[in-house]
Automatic annotation (TrEMBL):
Signal peptide residues on this chain, from the entry's feature table: 1-21
Natural source organism: Seriola lalandi dorsalis
Protein name (record): Beta-2-glycoprotein 1
Principal location class: secreted
Domain Sushi, chain residue ranges per copy: 24-84, 85-142, 143-205, 206-265
């Protein structure tokens, strides 16, 4: 037993003399640039070789991978370059965003979904040492609502096909009411990001009292009854009266009829002698039979430019039975009209 203890006490001395007997030794090298070496040995004799490698997550790019302990106790240099392992660029996230700075080892990607969408899967992923991401790309699934509520006496139309009993975020519906009901509220509703529909409108019954006739006109229906919402009545005018406005009125949601048209009276050209321009034709006033111009039509009368000794036409328009004669018009005398018609402003050279 004493012999064994003596040998154990001498061992440190023996190890030291073994390392130092051949000259200067090299200490364990300090390695940077994500380079590493195997083992835990601290001292090396001249001529010893060490094989270097890249740390986990790094890839060798160039340079020798071995260093040698020199007689001076210095290690040879190495040009080994270890670069971070790169993961593939991530796929895009439909209906969402991804946020990252790089795709090398230990880089992180964070995923977020747009409003109205819920993230299914991991919200982040890390580039691993083997060049793969720690988690697959998640999916942004739309928030869903139940089927849109239908108001009493109403119908709805979806803007896209619906499967099952749910509608995705952003789906819209259009509301319509069954006659004689009118829609009160927004015509459209939408499945929102909170999973609920915007406010549902109401369908209320609407009727209009029998409308009155218009002066010099007639109606397509004169029944003395209440008319349903959106029912229509047409108007027309008697004789040469002209209808101004829409020929049709409609029962509106406020229980009132839309604006009624009116019948406008024709005009007579208030001269006894002279020539006029009407419907692109020059007519003596006596040839205008009957002497009647419809509302809105245009007539031209001829005036004299005495300084230049030429004639010119001035237009005037029939407005509900009134046709104003231009101030410059001078009605010729009976003698001039009958014996010298060629001297009238309508017959001489035009200015």
């Amino acid at each position: 037993m004493e012999h064994i203890q003596t040998l154990f006490l001498l061992c440190p001395f023996v190890f030291f003399t073994t390392v130092t007997s051949e000259g200067n030794v090299c200490s364990r090298p300090e390695l940077g640039g994500n380079i590493e070496m195997d083992g835990i040995q601290r001292y090396f004799n001249p001529g010893a070789e060490l094989t270097l490698s890249c740390k986990q997550g790094y890839t060798p790019e160039s340079g020798p991978r071995k260093i040698v302990c020199g007689a001076s106790g210095k290690w040879t240099t190495t040009q080994l370059l270890c670069t971070p392992t790169r993961c593939p660029y991530p796929e895009s996230l439909q209906y969402g965003d991804l946020n990252y700075e790089d795709t090398v080892y230990q880089s992180t990607i964070n995923y977020t979904c747009y409003a109205g969408y819920i993230l299914t899967g991991a919200s982040s992923t890390v580039c691993q040492a083997n060049g793969t991401w720690s988690a697959p790309v998640p999916v942004c699934r739309p928030v869903t609502c139940g089927l849109a509520p239908i108001p009493e006496f109403g119908v709805i139309i979806y803007d896209r096909k619906i499967r099952g009993n749910t509608a995705d975020y952003g789906v819209r519906v259009t509301y319509k009411c069954l006659p004689p009901h009118a829609l009160f509220g927004n015509e459209k509703a939408e499945c929102t990001a909170s999973g609920t529909w915007t406010k549902t409108p109401e369908c209320r019954e609407v009727t209009c009292r029998p409308p009155e006739n218009i002066d010099h006109g007639y109606m397509s229906n004169s029944d003395q009854r209440d008319y349903d919402f959106m029912e229509t009545i047409r108007y027309g005018c008697e004789g040469d009266y002209v209808l101004e406005g829409s020929m049709q009125i409609v029962c509106q949601k406020d229980g009132k009829w839309s604006e009624k048209p009116s019948c406008k009276a024709p005009c007579s050209v208030g001269i006894q002698r002279g020539r006029i321009l009407y419907k692109e034709q020059k007519l003596w006033i006596k040839d205008l039979q009957p002497n009647r111009v419809l509302h809105g039509q245009i007539v031209s009368l001829y005036c004299m430019d005495k300084a230049r000794k030429c004639g010119y036409a001035v237009t005037t328009q029939c407005m509900n039975g009134n046709l104003e004669i231009p101030e410059c018009f001078e009605e010729p005398s009976v003698a001039d009209y009958q014996s010298q018609p060629s001297s009238l402003p309508s017959e001489i050279n035009q200015c």
